[in-house]
Design brief:
By secondary structure, this protein is an alpha/beta fold. It is built from 13 helices and twelve strands. It has a six-stranded parallel β-sheet with strand order 2-1-3-4-5-11, with helices on both faces. Helix 2 packs across helix 3 and helix 10 packs across helix 11.
Length: about 325
């Protein structure tokens, strides 16, 4: 079955092809009656305007490329939704490329997006080396979300990791916790930034940091939880690098008979939908996800329009959302 064309729409509506083209480009110099007739014909035929062809005709590309580090992580779904909404509000379509947690695939996906002649790029927590990002993107309007870079001309939107760590440690210390472990998110730059914020904040409170291995996956908290079970004295609280890690750690701790939060408190990061489940009710750091999309698209469209100068870094404040996984430490372990 052949796809309907603008010629088909013009014949159905009884108008010229040029008028159909004007309607599909959103031109204002078209009467309401003609516009309605063309749109009705297009709907009846199942005609869909070709965004790329429309861009060529108007000499303006209206598509943005979005690279997503891990489509299985609910956090990235939330961030993508905010970016897509902000892009639509700004009059842009979005082309998505999943990197599947692979730096090599990321580079290939960025090249693919650029081959599609996108107007600009949004990179969500890219794992590529900084020099690779610079080589691929430095000459293209680009903004990263969730990872800070030092590349001239590439803007950054991220959470304020130090402020987030201070929220978590201050909350636990206020309840009497002193032995607070951090299960990390692995070797990626965002995970290292989060761990560094934890270490610095622990030392500000005169406490000894304790970092345990983990990664940003559905089982990423299990190695750290197993290590905690074997410790004596055992940590009384865990600050996990994200909610996936926190929930998998809770499962591993429970298998060893530890109750949350009676025996050990757990705080996650992202305040994802997973944290809000009734059976979980995880205390978690909420990132300003909706603001990520708004700020990222604002910066990117300014750069596309040639209005940006230098490099802009926006660190947005976080919030600690209290649920049921935090309590004072057991009296015999305080």
């Amino acid at each position: 079955m052949t796809r309907p064309t603008q010629e088909d729409v013009a014949r159905r509506a009884g108008v010229s092809r040029a008028l159909v083209s004007l309607v599909m480009r959103g031109a204002t110099n078209v009467s309401d009656g003609s516009r309605a007739r063309v749109l009705k014909a297009a709907e009846e035929l199942g005609y869909r305007a070709n965004a790329y062809a429309r861009s060529l005709a108007s000499k303006q590309v209206r598509t943005l490329g979005v690279l997503i580090y891990d489509v299985t992580n609910p956090y990235f779904g939330q961030v993508y939704a905010s970016i897509a909404t902000a892009a639509e509000n700004a009059g842009y379509d979005v082309l998505v490329a999943p990197s599947e947690r692979s730096a090599r695939r990321e580079a290939a996906m960025v090249n693919t997006l650029l081959e599609h002649r996108v107007a600009g790029l949004v990179l969500l927590s890219p794992a590529m080396k900084q020099y690779t990002i610079a080589a691929l993107c430095a000459a293209w309007p680009t903004v990263t979300v969730g990872r800070e870079l030092a590349i001239s001309g590439i803007d950054v939107v991220s959470s304020d990791e130090r402020q987030a760590a201070q929220l978590v440690i201050e909350r636990l210390v206020r309840d009497g916790h002193r032995r607070i472990a951090h299960i990390s998110g692995g070797s990626s730059r965002p995970a290292r930034d989060r761990a560094a914020a934890y270490r610095a904040t622990m030392r500000e409170y005169g406490l000894e940091p304790l970092e345990l291995p983990g990664d940003f996956t559905v089982r990423g908290g299990e190695p750290g939880a197993e290590a905690i079970v074997a410790m004596d004295p055992r940590p009384t609280a865990v600050f996990a690098a994200n909610d996936l890690i926190a929930v998998s750690a809770i499962g591993a701790l429970a298998r060893h008979g530890l109750r949350i939060p009676d025996d050990i408190s757990v705080i996650g990061y992202d305040d994802s939908n997973l944290a809000r489940l009734e059976v979980v009710q995880l205390t978690s750091v909420r990132q300003p996800v909706a603001d990520f999309g708004t700020v990222a698209i604002e910066l990117l469209t300014e750069r596309i329009a040639g209005q940006a100068r230098g490099t802009v870094v926006r660190r947005l404040p976080t919030e600690l959302i209290e649920r049921r996984t935090v309590a004072p430490p057991p009296a015999d372990r305080a």
